[in-house]
Amino acid sequence: MKKVMVGMSGGIDSSVTAYMLQKEGFEVEGVYLKLHNRTDGYHESNISYIDNVAKHLDIKYHILDITKDFTKEVYDYFVNSYLEGTTPNPCVKCNRQIKFGKMLDFAKEHNASYLATGHYAKTDGEFIYEADDKTKDQSYFLSQVDKEALPFMMFPMSTYKKEDIIKFGAKLGDIYKKITEKNESQEICFVDTVYTDVIKKHANIDQPGIVFDEEGNEVGTHKGYMHYTIGKRRGFTVHGAHEPHFVKSLNAKDNTIIVGKKESLEINTVEANNLNMYVDDTNFKCGVKLRYRSHLLPCEVSIKDDRATIKLKNSAFGVATGQLAVFYIDEKVIGSAWITKAFK
Ligand SMILES: Nc1ncnc2c1ncn2[C@@H]1O[C@H](COP(=O)(O)OP(=O)(O)OP(=O)(O)O)[C@@H](O)[C@H]1O
């Protein structure tokens, strides 16, 4: 019997994942990653749900303290990105370094043939694809996972709708029903409220600064650059403006922001680095997502060394450095790269 290690979070998707794989005939074992040092009962509560599922399925589970790696690879990166005036994507880093890095190593050390998670995505061992439930699709967040990891990954949620998993879970019995009734997990697991509450622990983010227009004229004031992301249109003043103004760029060095009208945020070229490609092509046409939940934008990509230049067929607005450009051919992810520059 082949062994599958299931990344169990205490949520319904990974609980149903474990249940389904056992029904399919796999030997299932669970692992819970302690990602951060929270002392508010967060881990105890997650573990108690996992413990109930494990008892029901009569499976073994492990608790892996990975706080050191998570702090270095994900949390510190998140805080530093805001300090530098860029917009981070911690889940992308976590998937590459932690879940399909350290957790996969752990699965292999325990002789598992596969690592399964409750992510909404598909894989055939060679590529990642969008999930059938487009409202839950997480392929964007998985697109930096190392090619070598793909043959070991399993996503049993790939063809289901989240609402069906909740209904299915509720019918499985009290243990699962209770899991469906708890609050949905936050978008970023270590951000309880808003990201600024996390950054506040590390820096004084409330230092007012100057707002400039694109010509370099001083036009207003803001609350501190870390409160803003590209494309934001509130929380700063622009004297005498009749039309809405949007954040065009952030300057961490002198705590200034540059704003402009919507058309000034228009870009059609994006530069990106730290590529993770699943194909060898260096010049290709594809669709690109420049942020999670954006539409696929038709583009032409040319890659040289570790840099991609992405020429968009139509303009895009408000593209933030620090986000990920993910390349798709229809539903198939062919690679991704981190945005360093976006311009017209
Ligand atoms: N702390 C953790 N330990 C082990 N695996 C985890 C952990 N957090 C998430 N995972 C795995 O990654 C998957 C995706 O995580 P994500 O946070 O996006 O979803 P989720 O809504 O928390 O899913 P779930 O309903 O399973 O909690 C989970 O389904 C689970 O398999």
Automatic annotation (TrEMBL):
tRNA-specific 2-thiouridylase MnmA-like central domain span: 197-261
Chemical reaction(s) catalysed: S-sulfanyl-L-cysteinyl-[protein] + uridine(34) in tRNA + AH2 + ATP = 2-thiouridine(34) in tRNA + L-cysteinyl-[protein] + A + AMP + diphosphate + H(+)
Catalytic class of the enzyme: transferase
Region of interest called Interaction with tRNA, as start-end residue ranges on this chain: 136-138, 291-292
UniProt keyword terms in alphabetical order: ATP-binding, Cytoplasm, Disulfide bond, Nucleotide-binding, RNA-binding, Transferase, tRNA processing, tRNA-binding
Domain tRNA-specific 2-thiouridylase MnmA-like C-terminal: 276-339
Site feature location: Interaction with tRNA: 119, 323
Coiled coil: none
EC nos: 2.8.1.13
Binding site for ATP: 7-14, 33, 118
Active site: 94, 189
Pfam families noted in UniProt: tRNA_Me_trans, tRNA_Me_trans_C, tRNA_Me_trans_M
Cellular localisation: Cytoplasm
CDD domains, per database record: MnmA_TRMU-like (cd01998)
Family named by the database record: Belongs to the MnmA/TRMU family.
Job of this protein: Catalyzes the 2-thiolation of uridine at the wobble position (U34) of tRNA, leading to the formation of s(2)U34.
HAMAP family (alphabetical): tRNA_thiouridyl_MnmA
Full protein name: tRNA-specific 2-thiouridylase MnmA
Species this protein is from: Malaciobacter canalis
Gene: mnmA
